[in-house]
Design brief:
about 20% helix; globular; 8 helices; 28 strands; 2 domains; 6-stranded mixed β-sheet; Elongation Factor Tu (Ef-tu), domain 3; alpha+beta
Amino acid sequence: MKTKIGTGWSNQTNSREAGIEAATIAIKNGGIARPDFALVFCSGKHNPYEFLEGVNSILKETPKIGGSAIGIITDEFIGYDGFEVGVTVFSSDKIIFKTFAQSDINKNEFIAGSELGMQIQNVITEVSKGLLVFYDSSKQQNPPMLNFATPLFEGIEQYIPEYISIAGGGFLADMQLNTCYQFYNNTVLTQHAVAVLISGECTMQTTIMHGCKPCSAYLTITKTHGSIIYEIDNKPALEVIDELLGNSQKIKWKDFALYVTLGVNHGDKFGLFDEKEYANRLTLAVDEENKALIMFEPDLKVGDEVQLMRRSIDLNYIETTVSELKATMQERIPIFSFYINCAGRAKPYSGTDFEDAEEVQRVIGSNIPLMGFYSGVEVAKVGTKLQALDWTGVLCIIGEE
C-alpha cells in the first residue's frame, strides 16, 4: 500500500472540539482508513488534556507524539495568534513509526538525552532512516530558564548511527515560558523529550534555512559562565554589542533580548559565506548590572570566535534550498514535508512584512502534505554534528522508495 498522509488544522477555542476537527480533517484529506501514526500540536492557550481527548476520540490508540507550540504551519494555513492546532496522520505498509519519551530533562539534559538515545538505539535497524525529536524548552518562568538543547542532543547523538538523519525542535507554549506540554501516545507530559524513529522503504533529508548573515568581524569570547557571556574581546559584552550597533543607547540594552544574534562559523573561516555552516545563538535576556548577555544555549566558551549576525530572510534562497534538498532524494518520491520554524521568524517578531513559511508553502506545493510548528530552538546537523540553532528554519522531507 502506498503511504497515505493527511493534515488537518483548527483554530476553535474549545480544546476538545479543536482536536476532533483537526484529526477528522486529517483523516479525510489523507483518505485514511487505518491510522498508523500521528503528529499532534496545540497552542499554549488550549487545555492539552482536553485537546488530546478530542484527538483520541478519532485516532483512539494510534501512536503519536507532539506538544504545545506557539503556532502551526500546514500546506494551507499559518497561524500563531491564539488557538491553532494541527494534526498529521500517516498510514503505510512501507514506513514504520516507533515512538519514545524521556522524562526529567529539567534535572539534567545530558543524562535525559543519553537515556532517550539508549531507548532508540535498542530498536534501530539497518532500515532506520530518520529521527524527529521534540522537547520542552521551558525549564521555569521566574527567573526565565530554558532546558538546553546542546547537552540534550549530545546525549542522544552518541547512540544514533551517522546514517540516520536527525532533526528536532523545542516546544514553547508562549514567549513567557509558561508551562509547556508534550504528547506521547495517549499521555500528556511535561519536562519531557519525545521522539519518533522512522524506518522502512523511505528516506528523510533535512536542510537549514537561517536568514542571518554576518555583520561584524570575528569577535572572541573572553569570559563566560554557563549560558552567560560576560566579556567579548576583554570588554563587557553589552558594551561591545552596543558599539557594534552604533547605538549610543538609542536601543536600550534590555531590548537586545530576542534580538541580538551571534553566529559561529563551522566552515572555512575566510571562505565564501555559507549559511549551512553557521550555528546561530540568540540572546534570551540581558544582565544589565553585569553588562552580560544571557544566551539560549550554554555552549559558547572562552576562546570561541563569533560574529554579530543581521537578519535577512532571503525568499529566493528558500526556493533554491528546497530544490537542492529534493534533488538529494534521487529516485525517491517526496511524500511529506515538515518545517520547524523559529517563533522569532514570524512576522510580528521578525520586523518583516512577510512570512518565510508562506514561501516554504509555495515552494513545497500543494501535492506534498506540509506540517510544522513555531519553535523555541531548532536542531539539525551543521557539517557532521548536531547543533542547536536559533533564528532558523529546519525543513525535513520524507521520501518513499
